[in-house]
Amino acid sequence: MFQLRTPKSGRSSARSLATWYRSGGLSSVIFAVPLVLTFLYFSWGPIVRGLVLSFQKNNLVAPPEWVGMANFSYVLTDPQLPQAALNTLYFCLLALIFGFPVPLFLAVFISELRKTGWLYNVISYLPAVVPPVAAILLWKFFYDPSGVGVFNSILGWFGLGPFAWLNSQSLAMPAIVLEATWAGAGATSIIYLAALTGVRTELYEAAELDGAGIWKRVWHVTLPQIRGIILIMMLLQLIGTFQVFTEPFLFTGGGPNNATTTILLLIYRYAFINGDFGAATALSVLLAGVLCVLSVVYHLLTRRWSTT
Amino acid sequence: MSHERGIISTADRKRSVVQYGLPAIQVLLFIGVLIAGVGPLLWLLKSGLSTSQDILRGPMQLWPSGIQWQNIPDAWNRVQIGSYLGNTAIIAIGSMISTLFVCTTGAFVLSVLRPKWGPIITGAVLATLFLPGVISLVPLYMTILKMPLLGVNLQNTFWAVWLPQAAGAFNILVMKRYFDAIPRELIEAARIDGAGNLRLFTSLVLPLSKPIVGVVALLTVIGSWKDYLWPLLVLPDPRLQPISVALPRVAETTEISLQMSALFLAVLIPVVLFLVFQKQFLRGVGMSGGIKE
């Protein structure tokens, strides 16, 4: 009875165009315009342009010229690169060792507290609310190397220090990681807490009957059930820390003696201090390539444990 | 009575190690969290009301030369914290609007209208999720300096911050996933009732998606509030800069007491907002984890 479908035999293109229009084809296009335009301008376009730029010499003044692999060889032979790569890896490692377990431990603990859990939650999330730049400036003052600096005077009560903190080549990076952990732990632990609400509690009963102690229950029952989110958060943290910029930039500017120069700081210097956009994009492309390989390897390595 | 149990059982709680150990750990951890979470903020409040000399000579002493209430209005007027905070709000709200506009309309096409070319767009959006942001930093900056085809320079306009924010794959896919869960029968019913696509979008899909719209809005505001490098690059004009870009510059030129009261004012607003809306905040941030999975 109903003529739901318009005749398929579109003899003329005008007819099929009319059909397309009547079935809402035009409004689909109109609805898609914002997405397609913003992505063309600010996502797909820049990605393609980045790949192109890395093979060009470009300083925004002279017209760009093709230089082949020259940018890559320049970047790879830059004597600053090994140091920056090592610093970045060092930052990632420290953040993984110190920054990763803290929120996880916090979340497991908070999830055990039924009545007062929210209070821990709110307080531990507070640092995440402080704008990162304000937090860094505040901590920079805390790290004052003189004997009356905030941290040094607190440690002085226990007879320790004074430490040079950001002025010391060996302490600068751990100091930055400490601040980053402080700033990030609350937000991450909220995400774990949300995942922990989905843990099936019957299993605790079974584990307890089998004689598993509290720590064994955490290790064998709780953590395996949220391993999916743990693995993802670890990968996201790795990708994030490889691209760390704001903390070293504002804390030390890469010093002392380049002890905290990261890859992104190097990219920033190439582009916005030297005006060498080709070298900057070449290094960006290399870093992005490394991160893609890292993600794939990570995925393959952890496939055994992942939930899906 | 159904009682949710946790890792620690009632039998455990009777063991003396747990009976005394658990409260001890609780108290210790609470002190730790309190020092880490509230300590720096209280210190900032104290220092914001101190003289520069007091801050430098005795950072852990309570107001040896009295409380300096004058610091707060000084920071507001002389450092112009007010106008930087205003810029921050303009940037955050504009980013939120542009993000919501792009991701709701985009997700509506990909999830509800489902044109033939939809999967291609979905794939292209998804692909950008796997590429780290660093790859487009420099070319994005050059795009802002001279928009391709249009030839416009967006530097020193708020558009330079608002628009790129909207091209986030994560938000689009989250929104699309939420729209996918709307029963098709509802949409078909609205169609039979004669609703056009625009009507379908504004009167059915959007009202049904309030929770996810709220989460995306919140995460966008938090994200743009925290952003530093991008506004630093595209807003070199101090009159347009948000607080996070302005603070490090201000820190170099102002005395330490005003610096601390400026920092205090910059921290105060998000902290108060958080404490007022803590439930929504924590739920929204928690949901973002579920989405990532």
TrEMBL record, chain A:
The way it spans or sits in the membrane comes to: Multi-pass membrane protein
| Keywords per UniProt | Cell membrane, Membrane, Transmembrane, Transmembrane helix, Transport
Q: Which residues form a coiled coil?
A: none
Gene Ontology cellular component annotations, sorted alphabetically? plasma membrane
Transmembrane portions of the chain: 20-44, 88-110, 122-142, 226-245, 277-301
Keyword Chaperone among record annotations: no
Signal sequence annotation: none
Establish whether keyword Transport is in the entry: yes
Subcellular location, record wording: Cell membrane
Offer one example of a GO biological process linked to this entry: transmembrane transport
Give the highest taxon in the source lineage: Bacteria
Q: Where is the ABC transmembrane type-1 domain?
A: 85-298
Q: Which Pfam families match?
A: BPD_transp_1
What InterPro entries has UniProt attached to this entry?
ABC_transporter_permease, MetI-like, MetI-like_sf
| Family according to the record | Belongs to the binding-protein-dependent transport system permease family.
| Protein name from the UniProt record | Sugar ABC transporter permease
Organism, by scientific name, is Kribbella capetownensis
Automatic annotation (TrEMBL), chain B:
> By its UniProt entry, which PROSITE patterns does this protein fall under?
ABC_TM1
Q: ABC transmembrane type-1 domain location, by residue?
A: 85-277
The Gene Ontology biological process annotation of the record reads: transmembrane transport
**Chief place where the protein resides:** membrane
Subcellular location, in the record's words?
Cell membrane
Say if the entry is tagged with keyword Cell membrane: yes
- InterPro entries, sorted: MetI-like, MetI-like_sf
Which Gene3D superfamilies does UniProt cross-reference here? MetI-like
Q: Which keywords does this chain's UniProt record carry?
A: Cell membrane, Membrane, Transmembrane, Transmembrane helix, Transport
The UniProt entry lists membrane topology as: Multi-pass membrane protein
Q: Which domain of life is it from?
A: Bacteria
This protein's GO cellular component annotations are: plasma membrane
Q: Does the keyword Cell membrane apply?
A: yes
Residue spans crossing the bilayer: 20-45, 89-113, 120-142, 162-179, 200-225, 256-277
Q: Which family does it belong to?
A: Belongs to the binding-protein-dependent transport system permease family.
Entry protein name: Carbohydrate ABC transporter permease
Q: Which species does the entry assign this protein to? A: Kribbella capetownensis
